[in-house]
Amino acid sequence: MSSRTVSRRALLQGALVTVAFNPMTRSWASTMETGAVPLPRLDGELRMDTESRAAATEDFGHIRHRMPWAVLIPGSVQDIVAMVRFARHQGLKIAGARGLGESHSTFGQSQVEAGIVIDMSALSSIHEIGEDSAWVDAGVRWHELLQATTPRGRSPPVLTDYIELSIGGTLSAGGIGGQAFRWGLQVDNVMEMDVVTGQGELVRCSRTHERPLFDAVRSGLGQFGIIVRARVRLVEVPPRARTYTARYNDLHRFMEDQRRLIEDGRFDYVEGSAVASNGGWAYQLEVVKYFAPGAEPHDARLLTGLGFEPATLQVSDGSYFDFANRLAPLIEFLKQLGVWGFPHPWLDMFVPARAAESFVQEVLSQTTEADMGQGPILLYPFRASELTTPFLRTPDDRHIFLFSMLRTAIPPTPENVAALVQKNRAIFDRLTACGGKIYPVDAVPFTAADWRRHFHPDWERFEHAKRRHDPDHILTPGQGIF
Length: 482
Ligand SMILES: Cc1cc2nc3c(=O)[nH]c(=O)nc-3n(C[C@H](O)[C@H](O)[C@H](O)COP(=O)(O)OP(=O)(O)OC[C@H]3O[C@@H](n4cnc5c(N)ncnc54)[C@H](O)[C@@H]3O)c2cc1C
Fold this sequence. Notes:
The chain has three domains: 8-122, Uridine Diphospho-n-acetylenolpyruvylglucosamine Reductase, domain 2, CATH 3.30.43.10; 126-237, Uridine Diphospho-n-acetylenolpyruvylglucosamine Reductase, domain 3 (2-Layer Sandwich); 240-446, Vanillyl-alcohol Oxidase, Chain A, domain 3 (3-Layer(aba) Sandwich), CATH 3.40.462. Helices cover 29% and strands 24% of the residues. It has 16 helices and 22 strands. The strands form five sheets. It has an eight-stranded antiparallel β-sheet with strand order 18-15-17-16-20-21-19-22. β16 (269-277) and β17 (280-291) form a beta hairpin. The radius of gyration is 23 Å and the shape is globular. 48% of the residues are buried. Bound molecules: flavin-adenine dinucleotide (FAD). Flavin-adenine dinucleotide (FAD) binds at residues 59-60, 95-98, 103-105, 109-110, 120, 138, 160-162, 165-166, 168-170, 172-177, 221-222, 226-227, 441, 476, 479.
């Protein structure tokens, strides 16, 4: 920023029209300055103070840090339209993010160097809840939506494990959880969206209207537009959830059982994980059946034919909401310990079922507990037949496993973080060799060639969508795709 930076005080006093951008010096300026271009009138505010800008250099990963020139706290959708148009004309970059210091990216995806970050959490109203859908601002968290829908016996059909994520953020990525085998991902369950494109146009899109934009934006990694509102599907849910967890020592049997469960559909949720055991790894199945009071699940029938270690079975009941929000107590505890604020070099992979057992076996044999810093390793399958989103890249197989190594860097030193990121890259290369795909929300250094390979054979379609919706490449540079 130049020393001519307009003070925050002046901004807060409502003097926004006197604030401008000087394209020659590429810095904020006063409108008195020769050649300075006035900022658009805003309902919200554009913060240029160091504190706000510094908050936008942080994300959940704490690995990459890029300093924006300003943070837009939009007071309306029109503010986003105005700022995108302004940025486009001035050659500034823009990224939408969940909220100052609250970004859930792990590798700077929502950051922008010398550009503008839009704090989407400023627009977080739930506009309408109906029988089969809700119309919400993109800055709403899934948690907030669920709080509003569960008293009506309704829920989005698929939820992420952690429900503090923003609706716009998971729709730009995918949004996977233990119900995905039945419903697909969250991107497969969005019905309509309002999007501000990189050209600064506000466009409503759906499967029947402006379909190319609808298909581009879902899992589009913020490349084509900023999602400002979404109509998300709701389904009826019983108020109670019974959770079963049990251990396997045999990876083959564990994966076979998981695949069987997602095909026969006897449970409503199927996940699992690898857990450290006697210096090696065991496997934990986690399955859930929803029910109404008085219609208790039949445990023996549900568990029949499964090969877990019987003595490890645990069964617990709770409300549907508490099940969906099950990570909240753990995360509160991690926050108290300070570990939640450590770097998180995460690695999320989609592995074709045909190669999953050998790949997982190989990766785990080279992974120590120290490599994970007590972070979980998720392992569960879903069905390709439920996927409808072109830019969500998954391997070509009937069943696909999510294999997520959710590392915490302990100790949180730059050397340890760098070593873990390097391990991620090495595993990613092996993943690619066995036909797998990355779930691109994680901490893996990607080159332009990697992105081309990632979107193959649809790279040209991706590029074409960029030319059409964000021809000046102003949106979401933190992904490093273009
Ligand atoms: C603790 C934790 C748990 C997670 N659990 C799961 C899980 O169970 N399942 C799963 O699928 N994913 C999970 N994720 C990954 C998560 O879905 C993605 O990181 C998602 O993009 C986060 O969105 P956000 O808005 O909350 O974060 P942000 O960091 O603010 O945004 C992330 C990305 O989305 C883009 N973006 C944000 N808002 C918009 C918008 N309105 N329009 C267009 N682009 C936008 C940003 O530009 C950025 O590239 C988890 C992440 C964390 C940190």
